[in-house]
Amino acid sequence: MGKTDTQREFRFDYGLLLSFIVLTVLGILTIYSAGTGGGTAGAGENEYVKQIYWAVTGLVVFILLLFINYQKLGEYAVFIYIGCLLLLIFTLIIGKRVRGAKSWITLFGGFGFQPSEFVKIGVIIVLARYLDRIGEEIKTIKHVCISLLITLVPMGLILLQPDFGTALVYIPIVLTMLFFSGMKYAHLISILIILGIAIVLPLLVTFSSLTGSESIAFLKTLDDTKAVLLVASVFGALSFVFFVLYKVTKKDIFFKAMSIFLIFFAGLALAAVLGRFLKSYQRKRLIVFLKPSIDPYGSGYNIIQSKIAVGAGGLFGKGLFGGTQSQLGFLPERSTDFIFSIFAEEWGFVGSFFIIVLYGAFVFRGIMIMLGAKDRFGSLVASGVTGMFLFHIIINIGMTIGLMPITGIPLPFLSYGGSFLITSMVGASLLFNIASRRYAR
Predict the structure, then answer these.
(1) Cis peptide before 115 (omega within 30 of 0)
(2) What is the full DSSP assignment across 98-154?
(3) 3-state SS of 353-391?
(4) Are 114 and 141 within 8 A, CB to CB?
(5) How far is CA 349 from the centre of its chain?
(6) What digits encode the pLDDT tens for the residues 149-189?
(7) Are 129 and 121 in contact (CB under 8 A)?
(8) Virtual torsion, Cα 332, 337, 343, 346, nearest 10 deg
(9) 346, 323 Cβ separation under 8 angstroms
């Protein structure tokens, strides 16, 4: 009887293990292939060796975390959060600037890591702890705002680096966790509208200038931060007026009017901040996927070359080392952002479908673990981790085939990079941890 109980207390998810191990091996193989191409002399040729070291390190961390009950992590959520913020502040002070972003910390022997990647896991644990403690109170706007603030503080520090791609990942993480925590649909829709206004407005201005469109030339006036803030303040004042009317009359119509004006106020205010923060090249990268030909030798170059690589793979691909885009050096960032393009060119539609099936199996197991967790905290952690993986997969593969903007978001387990690979392994370990303790007493 005791033996049966012990077996029930620990269940190993072999489907999840097999999927991410195979993905990691395929990633190393593809990085090796990409490193043999033109323009990769020096460090590029050793990328696959470093990836092997990081994969082994990640597996060690993965195994060690299995011995720590995930519920214990929740008990130290406050210390984890403070540590994450201090690490990000430390990065801003002494961090090393790489590709325009001060997001790396270099230690002894030239070893460096990217704190913002590890902070993703920290934020998931902290947010899950908070949502678990407040329970049904998440249906109130107060606790929704606090939950957003928990995420926005580290996100803001990452934007200061500036690392827009990594910061962007925090949005689907918090929205996924809020959704599964039971927030009101009205609150979720309001947040999505605010984000839509904040992101679309600055990009419309850039799109207008790139295409030379006269029909939306008036939007150029909204490129002025002061003008946007002025319009936002009008909506804010109207929102306050209707709030007072609601308090006096208690009529629901005034509350609805207040909510609508408040949404536009928040969206425009955030658009002003984002418009001020986003650099010209970042704006172009975010919209050029709609029409790469408007800047074929600039922001649209990577997308054009990526689509050529994916299309050239055909049904069965050109084989390992056979891809012209990687071997001749046409596709930049081929071992990181565009690793899927290289894999697709070498292994074709069949290989690409196999990769997507592996990712599908991994995400499916993550969802099942989330739904089958024995406690609310474990379920919320699993939802955050699964949401993080799903967003990375959709955005990265989408941008390589021209369906999503280029944001510099890597592909889990495949893309070159030690910090992200280890973070992915930690995320996978958390899923295993939650699944294995489902029946533990």
Answers:
(1) no
(2) ETTEEEEEE-GGG-EE-HHHHHHHHHHHHHHHHHHHHGGGGGSHHHHHHHHHHHHHH
(3) HHHHHHHHHHHHHHHHHHHHCCCHHHHHHHHHHHHHHHH
(4) no
(5) 26
(6) 999 999 888 888 878 888 888 999 999 999 999 898 988 99
(7) no
(8) -10
(9) yes
Residue 331 lies in a domain: yes
Task: Please say whether the beta carbons of 428 and 20 come within 8 A.
Answer: yes
Q: Does residue 70 belong to any structural domain of this protein?
A: yes
The pLDDT score that the predictor gives to residue 209 is 64
- 441 within a domain of the structure (yes/no): no
How far apart (Å, rounded) are the C-alpha atoms in residues 332 and 326? 8
Query: Do 408 and 337 touch, CB atoms closer than 8 A?
Result: yes
Number of domains in the chain: 1
Residue 365 lies in a domain: yes
Q: How far apart are the first and last CA of the chain?
A: 15
Looking at residue 258, its amino acid is M
Sheet strand arrangement including 96-98: 96-98, 101-106, 112-113
Model pLDDT for residues 239-281, shown as the tens digit of each residue = 999 888 888 888 888 888 888 989 988 888 888 877 777 776 6
Q: Which token pair is 162? A: 């500036």
d(CA 439, CA 235): 52
Any idea what DSSP says for residue 224?
A: S
Nearest C-alpha neighbor of 158 from the set 209, 132, 120, 189: 120
- With H, G, I as helix, E, B as strand and everything else as coil, classify residue 94: helix
Residue type, 114: Q
Q: Tell me which residue of 384, 337, 335, 418 sits closest to 115, measured CA to CA.
A: 418
DSSP string, 165-215: HHHHHHHHHHHHHHHHHT--HHHHHHHHHHHHHHHHHHHHHHHHHHHT-ST
- Residues 393-427 pLDDT 10s: 999 998 888 888 777 789 999 998 888 999 999 99
Which one, of 432, 439, 441, 369, lies nearest residue 68 by Cα?
432
Alpha-carbon dihedral sign for residues 264, 265, 270, 275: positive
Residue numbers of the domain that contains 109: 2-436
